[in-house]
Design goal:
This protein has 322 residues and is of the alpha+beta class.
Amino acid sequence: MEFFKSEGKVRFDELIEPKFRYPEDFDLDRFHRFLSLSGISKIDDTETMLLHLGVTEKQEKRLLFNNAGILFFAKEPQRFISWSVFTVALFKDETGTDVIDRKEIKGSLFEIVEEVMKFVKLYSKVAYKFTGAPQRENIYEYPFEAIREAVINSVMHKYYFEHGHNNILKFLPACIKIENYWVKPNHFVLGKTVFRRNHIIADLFARIHFGEKMGTGFERIREMCKKENAPFPEIELTENYFYVTFKQSHVYLQMAQKQTPQKTTQKIVELIKQNPSITRKELSERLGLTEDGVKFHLNKLKEKKVIKRIGPDKGGHWEVVQ
Protein backbone atom coordinates (compact mmCIF):
# COMPACT_ATOMS: atom_id res chain seq x y z
CA MET A 1 0.00 0.00 0.00
CA GLU A 2 2.84 2.45 0.83
CA PHE A 3 4.33 1.83 -2.62
CA PHE A 4 1.02 2.70 -4.32
CA LYS A 5 0.70 5.83 -2.18
CA SER A 6 4.23 7.03 -2.96
CA GLU A 7 3.76 6.42 -6.70
CA GLY A 8 0.45 8.31 -6.73
CA LYS A 9 -1.65 5.21 -7.47
CA VAL A 10 -3.65 5.86 -4.30
CA ARG A 11 -4.27 9.59 -4.02
CA PHE A 12 -4.99 11.33 -0.74
CA ASP A 13 -7.07 14.08 -2.31
CA GLU A 14 -9.47 11.53 -3.87
CA LEU A 15 -10.27 9.73 -0.61
CA ILE A 16 -13.74 10.28 0.87
CA GLU A 17 -13.93 11.62 4.45
CA PRO A 18 -17.01 9.97 6.04
CA LYS A 19 -17.04 12.32 9.04
CA PHE A 20 -17.69 15.39 6.89
CA ARG A 21 -21.34 16.42 6.91
CA TYR A 22 -22.90 18.44 4.10
CA PRO A 23 -24.16 21.14 4.38
CA GLU A 24 -23.28 21.56 8.10
CA ASP A 25 -19.48 21.51 7.57
CA PHE A 26 -19.54 23.24 4.18
CA ASP A 27 -18.47 26.91 3.88
CA LEU A 28 -20.68 28.47 1.20
CA ASP A 29 -18.92 31.87 1.39
CA ARG A 30 -15.54 30.22 0.85
CA PHE A 31 -16.99 28.31 -2.11
CA HIS A 32 -18.39 31.51 -3.65
CA ARG A 33 -15.03 33.23 -3.26
CA PHE A 34 -13.38 30.33 -5.08
CA LEU A 35 -15.92 30.64 -7.90
CA SER A 36 -15.26 34.37 -8.09
CA LEU A 37 -11.49 33.76 -8.38
CA SER A 38 -12.29 31.22 -11.10
CA GLY A 39 -14.23 33.82 -13.07
CA ILE A 40 -17.57 32.07 -12.49
CA SER A 41 -20.14 34.67 -11.46
CA LYS A 42 -23.32 32.63 -11.27
CA ILE A 43 -24.31 28.99 -10.84
CA ASP A 44 -27.73 27.35 -10.73
CA ASP A 45 -26.91 24.37 -8.52
CA THR A 46 -24.15 24.23 -5.87
CA GLU A 47 -24.21 20.44 -5.61
CA THR A 48 -23.86 19.98 -9.35
CA MET A 49 -20.90 22.37 -9.43
CA LEU A 50 -19.20 20.49 -6.56
CA LEU A 51 -19.59 17.25 -8.48
CA HIS A 52 -18.24 18.95 -11.61
CA LEU A 53 -15.15 20.14 -9.69
CA GLY A 54 -14.44 16.57 -8.65
CA VAL A 55 -14.60 17.23 -4.90
CA THR A 56 -17.75 15.23 -4.12
CA GLU A 57 -19.64 12.11 -5.10
CA LYS A 58 -23.21 11.00 -4.45
CA GLN A 59 -24.04 7.82 -2.59
CA GLU A 60 -27.63 6.97 -1.67
CA LYS A 61 -28.72 10.60 -2.14
CA ARG A 62 -26.00 11.80 0.25
CA LEU A 63 -23.27 14.18 -0.97
CA LEU A 64 -19.86 12.92 0.19
CA PHE A 65 -16.75 15.12 0.18
CA ASN A 66 -13.25 13.95 -0.63
CA ASN A 67 -10.14 15.39 1.03
CA ALA A 68 -9.59 17.93 -1.75
CA GLY A 69 -13.10 19.31 -1.19
CA ILE A 70 -12.42 19.57 2.54
CA LEU A 71 -9.08 21.35 2.04
CA PHE A 72 -10.78 23.95 -0.17
CA PHE A 73 -14.37 24.30 1.05
CA ALA A 74 -14.76 23.12 4.66
CA LYS A 75 -15.62 25.63 7.38
CA GLU A 76 -12.75 24.19 9.42
CA PRO A 77 -10.42 22.22 7.13
CA GLN A 78 -7.91 21.57 9.93
CA ARG A 79 -10.59 19.86 12.05
CA PHE A 80 -10.45 17.04 9.52
CA ILE A 81 -6.85 17.40 8.24
CA SER A 82 -4.94 19.08 11.08
CA TRP A 83 -1.53 18.59 9.42
CA SER A 84 -2.49 20.90 6.52
CA VAL A 85 -1.43 23.87 8.70
CA PHE A 86 1.40 25.94 7.17
CA THR A 87 4.02 27.16 9.67
CA VAL A 88 5.79 30.47 8.96
CA ALA A 89 8.56 31.87 11.13
CA LEU A 90 10.86 34.90 11.14
CA PHE A 91 14.29 34.31 12.66
CA LYS A 92 16.86 36.72 14.01
CA ASP A 93 19.80 34.41 13.26
CA GLU A 94 20.93 32.27 10.33
CA THR A 95 20.79 29.04 12.37
CA GLY A 96 17.03 29.43 12.87
CA THR A 97 17.04 29.23 16.67
CA ASP A 98 16.07 32.79 17.71
CA VAL A 99 12.42 33.28 16.68
CA ILE A 100 11.07 36.82 16.26
CA ASP A 101 7.62 35.91 14.94
CA ARG A 102 5.85 32.62 14.24
CA LYS A 103 2.39 31.75 12.97
CA GLU A 104 0.43 28.59 12.30
CA ILE A 105 -1.64 29.48 9.24
CA LYS A 106 -4.96 27.70 8.88
CA GLY A 107 -7.89 27.83 6.48
CA SER A 108 -8.48 26.59 2.95
CA LEU A 109 -5.42 25.88 0.82
CA PHE A 110 -5.85 28.94 -1.40
CA GLU A 111 -6.29 31.17 1.67
CA ILE A 112 -3.20 29.61 3.25
CA VAL A 113 -1.16 30.60 0.18
CA GLU A 114 -2.45 34.18 0.46
CA GLU A 115 -1.65 34.42 4.19
CA VAL A 116 1.85 32.97 3.75
CA MET A 117 2.55 35.62 1.12
CA LYS A 118 1.26 38.38 3.44
CA PHE A 119 3.82 37.20 6.01
CA VAL A 120 6.60 37.23 3.40
CA LYS A 121 5.70 40.73 2.20
CA LEU A 122 5.37 42.03 5.76
CA TYR A 123 9.00 41.27 6.57
CA SER A 124 10.59 41.78 3.15
CA LYS A 125 12.53 44.96 2.52
CA VAL A 126 12.37 47.18 -0.53
CA ALA A 127 14.89 49.63 -1.93
CA TYR A 128 14.03 52.50 -4.24
CA LYS A 129 15.92 53.24 -7.42
CA PHE A 130 15.56 56.74 -8.81
CA THR A 131 16.14 56.80 -12.55
CA GLY A 132 14.99 60.33 -13.37
CA ALA A 133 11.57 59.07 -14.46
CA PRO A 134 8.46 60.44 -12.70
CA GLN A 135 7.97 57.15 -10.83
CA ARG A 136 10.73 55.45 -8.88
CA GLU A 137 11.61 51.77 -9.42
CA ASN A 138 10.97 49.42 -6.50
CA ILE A 139 13.72 46.86 -5.92
CA TYR A 140 12.40 44.10 -3.66
CA GLU A 141 14.52 41.88 -1.50
CA TYR A 142 12.91 38.72 -2.92
CA PRO A 143 10.92 37.76 -6.06
CA PHE A 144 7.39 37.55 -4.60
CA GLU A 145 5.73 35.81 -7.55
CA ALA A 146 8.39 33.09 -7.62
CA ILE A 147 8.04 32.50 -3.88
CA ARG A 148 4.25 32.35 -4.27
CA GLU A 149 4.66 29.70 -6.96
CA ALA A 150 6.93 27.68 -4.65
CA VAL A 151 4.41 27.97 -1.79
CA ILE A 152 1.62 26.76 -4.12
CA ASN A 153 3.77 23.82 -5.21
CA SER A 154 4.49 22.94 -1.59
CA VAL A 155 0.80 22.59 -0.66
CA MET A 156 -0.16 21.13 -4.05
CA HIS A 157 2.38 18.28 -3.99
CA LYS A 158 2.58 17.66 -0.26
CA TYR A 159 2.47 14.00 0.83
CA TYR A 160 -0.68 14.27 2.95
CA PHE A 161 -0.62 10.63 4.05
CA GLU A 162 2.13 11.63 6.51
CA HIS A 163 0.42 13.33 9.47
CA GLY A 164 3.44 14.51 11.45
CA HIS A 165 4.83 17.27 9.23
CA ASN A 166 3.56 20.77 8.44
CA ASN A 167 4.82 22.72 5.47
CA ILE A 168 7.26 25.33 6.77
CA LEU A 169 8.53 28.69 5.53
CA LYS A 170 11.59 30.01 7.37
CA PHE A 171 12.40 33.70 6.90
CA LEU A 172 16.10 33.95 7.81
CA PRO A 173 18.28 37.10 7.70
CA ALA A 174 19.71 36.28 4.27
CA CYS A 175 17.28 33.80 2.71
CA ILE A 176 13.77 32.33 2.67
CA LYS A 177 13.60 28.54 2.96
CA ILE A 178 10.50 26.48 2.18
CA GLU A 179 10.43 22.95 3.59
CA ASN A 180 7.98 20.39 2.28
CA TYR A 181 7.53 16.76 3.32
CA TRP A 182 7.12 14.38 0.41
CA VAL A 183 7.92 10.84 -0.69
CA LYS A 184 10.16 10.80 -3.75
CA PRO A 185 8.62 8.73 -6.57
CA ASN A 186 10.76 6.07 -8.23
CA HIS A 187 12.66 7.30 -11.31
CA PHE A 188 11.89 10.96 -10.46
CA VAL A 189 14.27 13.44 -12.16
CA LEU A 190 14.05 17.07 -11.04
CA GLY A 191 13.10 19.40 -13.89
CA LYS A 192 12.23 16.53 -16.24
CA THR A 193 9.65 14.28 -14.60
CA VAL A 194 6.07 15.58 -14.61
CA PHE A 195 4.48 14.30 -11.42
CA ARG A 196 1.16 15.46 -9.97
CA ARG A 197 0.66 13.81 -6.59
CA ASN A 198 -2.70 15.45 -5.83
CA HIS A 199 -4.34 15.99 -9.19
CA ILE A 200 -7.70 17.32 -7.89
CA ILE A 201 -5.91 19.89 -5.72
CA ALA A 202 -3.74 20.84 -8.73
CA ASP A 203 -6.85 21.25 -10.92
CA LEU A 204 -8.55 23.45 -8.31
CA PHE A 205 -5.49 25.68 -8.04
CA ALA A 206 -5.27 25.92 -11.83
CA ARG A 207 -8.92 27.03 -12.00
CA ILE A 208 -8.12 30.08 -9.86
CA HIS A 209 -4.82 30.67 -11.69
CA PHE A 210 -2.71 29.54 -8.75
CA GLY A 211 -0.11 27.38 -10.50
CA GLU A 212 -0.45 25.23 -13.58
CA LYS A 213 -1.88 21.77 -14.25
CA MET A 214 1.00 20.54 -16.40
CA GLY A 215 3.73 20.33 -13.76
CA THR A 216 5.74 23.31 -15.06
CA GLY A 217 6.20 25.00 -11.66
CA PHE A 218 9.98 25.22 -11.67
CA GLU A 219 10.15 26.59 -15.20
CA ARG A 220 7.67 29.27 -14.14
CA ILE A 221 9.82 30.05 -11.09
CA ARG A 222 12.90 30.31 -13.31
CA GLU A 223 11.15 32.80 -15.60
CA MET A 224 9.84 34.85 -12.66
CA CYS A 225 13.30 35.07 -11.09
CA LYS A 226 14.80 36.07 -14.42
CA LYS A 227 12.19 38.79 -14.83
CA GLU A 228 12.94 40.18 -11.34
CA ASN A 229 16.72 39.85 -11.84
CA ALA A 230 16.84 37.55 -8.82
CA PRO A 231 18.89 34.35 -8.39
CA PHE A 232 17.17 31.07 -9.10
CA PRO A 233 16.46 29.30 -5.80
CA GLU A 234 18.61 26.47 -4.51
CA ILE A 235 16.73 23.17 -4.62
CA GLU A 236 17.58 20.22 -2.41
CA LEU A 237 15.66 16.97 -2.23
CA THR A 238 15.95 13.76 -0.29
CA GLU A 239 13.71 10.72 -0.15
CA ASN A 240 11.39 12.52 2.28
CA TYR A 241 12.07 16.26 2.15
CA PHE A 242 12.01 18.94 -0.52
CA TYR A 243 13.73 22.28 0.19
CA VAL A 244 13.56 25.46 -1.89
CA THR A 245 15.82 28.31 -0.74
CA PHE A 246 15.49 31.83 -2.12
CA LYS A 247 18.47 34.16 -1.77
CA GLN A 248 18.28 37.94 -1.70
CA SER A 249 18.32 39.79 -5.00
CA HIS A 250 21.81 40.91 -6.06
CA VAL A 251 20.46 44.31 -7.12
CA TYR A 252 18.70 44.79 -3.79
CA LEU A 253 21.89 43.92 -1.87
CA GLN A 254 23.91 46.42 -3.90
CA MET A 255 21.44 49.18 -3.11
CA ALA A 256 21.08 48.21 0.55
CA GLN A 257 24.85 48.42 1.06
CA LYS A 258 24.70 52.10 0.21
CA GLN A 259 22.57 52.76 3.28
CA THR A 260 23.98 53.25 6.76
CA PRO A 261 23.13 50.23 8.93
CA GLN A 262 20.79 51.18 11.76
CA LYS A 263 18.04 49.44 13.67
CA THR A 264 14.67 50.00 11.96
CA THR A 265 12.86 51.07 15.11
CA GLN A 266 15.58 53.62 15.86
CA LYS A 267 15.23 55.04 12.37
CA ILE A 268 11.46 55.33 12.82
CA VAL A 269 11.81 57.19 16.13
CA GLU A 270 14.35 59.59 14.63
CA LEU A 271 12.17 60.27 11.59
CA ILE A 272 9.15 60.94 13.84
CA LYS A 273 11.22 63.37 15.92
CA GLN A 274 12.16 65.20 12.72
CA ASN A 275 8.58 65.21 11.41
CA PRO A 276 5.79 64.23 13.85
CA SER A 277 3.24 64.34 10.99
CA ILE A 278 5.14 61.83 8.86
CA THR A 279 2.89 59.24 7.19
CA ARG A 280 3.29 55.48 6.86
CA LYS A 281 3.86 55.93 3.14
CA GLU A 282 6.64 58.44 3.78
CA LEU A 283 8.23 56.15 6.37
CA SER A 284 8.02 53.30 3.87
CA GLU A 285 9.88 55.34 1.27
CA ARG A 286 12.56 56.50 3.72
CA LEU A 287 13.17 53.07 5.27
CA GLY A 288 12.91 50.82 2.24
CA LEU A 289 10.10 48.78 3.82
CA THR A 290 6.61 47.92 2.66
CA GLU A 291 3.80 49.93 4.30
CA ASP A 292 2.70 46.75 6.08
CA GLY A 293 6.22 46.39 7.45
CA VAL A 294 6.15 49.99 8.72
CA LYS A 295 2.74 49.38 10.33
CA PHE A 296 4.14 46.34 12.14
CA HIS A 297 7.06 48.33 13.61
CA LEU A 298 4.82 51.27 14.57
CA ASN A 299 2.50 48.91 16.45
CA LYS A 300 5.46 47.39 18.29
CA LEU A 301 6.68 50.86 19.31
CA LYS A 302 3.18 51.79 20.49
CA GLU A 303 2.94 48.58 22.52
CA LYS A 304 6.26 49.43 24.21
CA LYS A 305 4.95 52.98 24.83
CA VAL A 306 7.87 54.49 22.94
CA ILE A 307 5.51 56.48 20.70
CA LYS A 308 1.82 57.33 20.70
CA ARG A 309 -0.62 58.63 18.15
CA ILE A 310 -2.30 61.99 18.81
CA GLY A 311 -5.51 62.55 16.86
CA PRO A 312 -6.94 60.63 13.89
CA ASP A 313 -4.99 58.83 11.17
CA LYS A 314 -5.60 61.77 8.86
CA GLY A 315 -4.65 65.09 10.38
CA GLY A 316 -3.09 63.68 13.53
CA HIS A 317 0.57 63.32 14.49
CA TRP A 318 3.05 61.13 16.35
CA GLU A 319 4.60 61.89 19.70
CA VAL A 320 7.78 60.28 21.06
CA VAL A 321 7.09 59.36 24.67
CA GLN A 322 10.59 58.30 25.66
